[in-house]
Each structure stands twice: as C-alpha cells, then as structure tokens.
Amino acid sequence: MQKPVAEPQSGDHTLSPQELELAQLIVTTLNLEARAADIDPLAPLYKAGLGLDSIDILEIALAVSKTYGIRLRSDDGNNQKIFRSLRDLSQHLQQFRAK
Fold first, then answer.
1. Statement: residue 4 has pLDDT above 60
2. Contact 30, 60 (CB under 8 A)
3. Residues in contact with 47: Cβ distance below 8 Å, sequence separation at least 6, in sequence order
4. What is the pLDDT of residues 57-69, one digit of tens each?
5. C-alpha of 7 from chain center
6. What is the rounded average pLDDT of the residues 87-96?
7. What is the mean pLDDT of the chain?
8. pLDDT 10s digits, 28-80
9. Which DSSP helix (H) or strand (E) runs through 59?
10. CA torsion sign, 67 to 30 to 74 to 42?
11. Number of neighbours of residue 82 by Cβ within 10 angstroms
C-alpha cells in the first residue's frame, strides 16, 4: 500500500516530489547553475528570488506544455499568481494533472 504524499504547508520550504520534478525541469530548461533541490519553493520565480525574466517564464511555459501537456497561456489573467513561486506553479499543474 502506497502512502499518500503529504502536501507541503504554506510556510514549509521543503520541496515535495512534484516540486522537485518541476524544479529539475526549470533548471534543465534554463541551464541554471543552481541545483533543483536547492530551489526554495516559496521564493519568487520572477525577478527577485530565482531572478527569472519574462523570456525565462515563456521558456518554462513551453517546457511545461511539452512535458505535462498543460498549456500555460500568456494572456491568462492568473499568470502573476501561477508563476509567483515554484510551489504556486506546481500546485497549478497538479490541479490539471488530477483531472
């Protein structure tokens, strides 16, 4: 019997398995020198935090689409929330993967 994966709490800086997988995708896609396991899931993705710019975010959206089959649209009004942090992006993807 498989144990259920506990969802990380809002103040928890530990990466869940899903977040680690997504962090690895981001590191690989953007050729970052950081290790996926060292990315703080609550740190901002854009500007401060990981220091990504709008082109980086577009590259991540394309990689997510190819990897998970989930299309992230540039005109989505929720993009600021979706890309706020690794945890927010992961939770957004999990909503669509569960369907």
1. no
2. yes
3. 53
4. 999 999 999 999 9
5. 15
6. 93
7. 87
8. 999 999 899 999 999 999 888 888 999 999 999 999 999 999 999 888 899 99
9. helix 54-68
10. positive
11. 18
Phi, psi of 80 (to 5 degrees): -60, -40
Helix axis angle, 54-68 relative to 17-30, nearest 10°?
120
Residue with tokens 């540039």, as numbered in its chain: 74
- What pLDDT, on a 0 to 100 scale, did the predictor assign at position 6? 43
Rounded CA-CA distance 40/14 in Å is 8
- Pick left, alpha or beta for residue 49 (phi over 0 → left; psi -120 to 50 → alpha; otherwise beta): left
Q: Where are the beta strands (DSSP E) in 9-69?
A: none
Rg (CA), the chain: 13
53, burial (CB in 10 Å: exposed 0-12, middle 13-18, buried 19+)? exposed
Tokens of 91: 């939770």
Half-sphere exposure of 11 (CA within 13 A, CB side): 0
State the amino acid at position 6 in one-letter form.
A
Q: Tokens 């290790």 belong to which residue?
A: 35
